[in-house]
Specification:
With 105 residues, this protein is an all-beta fold. Helices cover 0% and strands 26% of the residues. It has a five-stranded antiparallel beta sheet with strand order 4-3-2-1-5, with no helix packed on it. Strand 3 and strand 4 form a beta hairpin. The protein is elongated, with a radius of gyration of 18 Å. The N and C termini lie far apart (37 Å). The model has no long low-confidence stretch (mean pLDDT 81).
């Protein structure tokens, strides 16, 4: 079980540089590695897929915990192939997703 007050691998965060107060990651980033010792660095993956390593002074804002994220980035219907965005499971038949908003045909 994770600690809801601790930033951990898999969490989504917003990262700001302390000195300039500027945002150097646009949008949220996923935490890939949390420093464990002096000299170790944070590892982040941006929404564009860019990997960033930093041990510079930064402020990190927790946006969501890893367990809050859906299991899949895109779920779909096996029968028609339509996509429905993030979710825990897809659909086997079209009648299972009646009324759901289609994201991708």
């Amino acid at each position: 079980m994770s600690d809801s007050n601790k930033i951990e691998v898999g969490d989504m965060v917003q990262v700001n540089m302390d000195a300039a107060g500027m945002n150097f990651i646009r949008g949220d980033a996923e935490v890939l590695h949390v420093p464990q010792a002096t000299g170790d660095s944070w590892h982040f993956k941006t929404s564009e897929g860019v990997i960033i390593y930093t041990n510079e002074p930064i402020t990190i804002y927790l946006r969501s915990k890893a367990e809050d994220k859906p299991g899949f980035d895109m779920v779909s219907c096996s029968q028609c192939g339509c996509g429905f965005g993030p979710g825990e499971n897809g659909y086997s038949h079209c009648h299972d997703h009646q009324g759901q908003k289609v994201i991708e045909d």
